[in-house]
Task: inverse folding
């Protein structure tokens, strides 16, 4: 582990300290600021060209996949919390009820900018 | 599909046009500029906090996981090619032989900045 504190390498530390395989991000729990466990990360959506993580797909409810719903959350609303070992979002369970979501048999068209804008608008995040 | 051409929304088109679930990026073939099939994407490595895709882990060789090797490639060296439906990298098969790699039983320490710098140096990509 390199020690680069105090060398102005803040961004380097941030880059190195939290790198993880996407396959291991899946399954990470998502909490709200009240400590409620809202669900877990089911998958992430990335831009093939820009290499930016755009959405975390959070699974919510259901049992063994039955009745499970998926909420795409703009990556920007998720804050990783080392202490809880999960992501924290400023979303109440009530707010999730009206949020964009899809069922297990559906697959959103991630290429549709209108859909992307609807998700980001819901969470007050700029779409770009 | 929204039509935003000519509205200065170039970046928006790029964002929307290539969004895909990380789980579906896995398996995408990787070619070099000579058209050789070098392998396929096995996983990607992202920064949990900055949401940036740092590495694509390319699997190379092997059969049913036996003798398979994994090469972490800086995301910046991969160019997605719609026509081939895969990524193209400017790397020869010979160059891969000396490239940073790991076996099926190993797992690199992605948090180690020295390791990250070694990968990026090998491919001539700035580490940050």
Result:
């Amino acid at each position: 582990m390199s020690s680069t504190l105090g060398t102005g390498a803040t961004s380097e530390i941030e880059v190195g300290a939290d790198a993880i395989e996407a396959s291991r991000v899946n399954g990470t729990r998502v909490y709200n600021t009240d400590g409620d466990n809202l669900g877990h990360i089911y998958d992430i959506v990335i831009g093939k060209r820009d290499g930016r993580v755009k959405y975390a797909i959070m699974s919510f409810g259901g049992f063994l996949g039955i009745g499970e719903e998926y909420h795409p959350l703009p990556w920007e609303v998720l804050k990783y919390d080392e202490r809880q070992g999960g992501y924290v979002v400023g979303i109440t369970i009530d707010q999730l009820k009206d949020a964009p979501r899809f069922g297990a048999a559906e697959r959103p068209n991630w290429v549709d900018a209108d859909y992307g804008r609807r998700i980001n608008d819901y969470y007050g995040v700029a779409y770009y």
